[in-house]
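Predict structure. Chain length: 231.
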Amino acid sequence: MKQITGVRAQEQVLIYELYQIDRPNNFAYPKWCEAEAEKHGLTVNQVRRIVAMGERDFLQQVSQASVSKAQQVAELMGLHLEDAFEVLKDQMQATTRRPLTDKDGRMQRDCHTCEGTGKYLITDGATGKQRGTTCPDCKGTGGDVIWLEKPDNPARRGAAKLTIEVFGALAPNQLEIHAKHTHYHITDEQLHARLATLLDQVQSLQSPVTHQIEGNGSDQPRVDGKKGSRR
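Prediction complete.
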């Protein structure tokens, strides 16, 4: 099992063995992870990674013969499936940020040198909320840059869509089908009459053929070579 930073190898083995014994279902799993994290002094995320890595190793042992070439190359390069899902999880909380600037485009900074004597509050003109502090004495060159941070909605939507696809939770495509069905409703008397008509038609078609076959019988030669009818 791959070593997780900040977790001893013995703890990793122990936690995964406990998971195999308890086998909590999907509803009990979060509580189980919280309990094990508190018991071993780890974070819930570390416990989840231990279980995920243990399951991955187990599945690799079971299906080693069916591992694709791409998976073999990825394993040799140190790429693992849980790492990809970890990135996907982080993207769900992705943010973007930009520096706070004044009307002249100068980055605003939080001065630590004047001990607050030169600071004044910067407020958002639209919302009236405080956006940070700056110091006019530093003239935009000293102190820490004040950053404005907001959710990166495109990245979050992309991660959410990929997660839904991985779990197969996409709604099926709805197809609108236009079909015409013709239904016939007849009584038993009508059905019998129709069958009788069809039987008469079949017999009328067979009659000429039957007469032709019977008529041809008188022209057949006898054993002595003379014409005669068959008996």
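Summary: Residues 95-151 form one domain.
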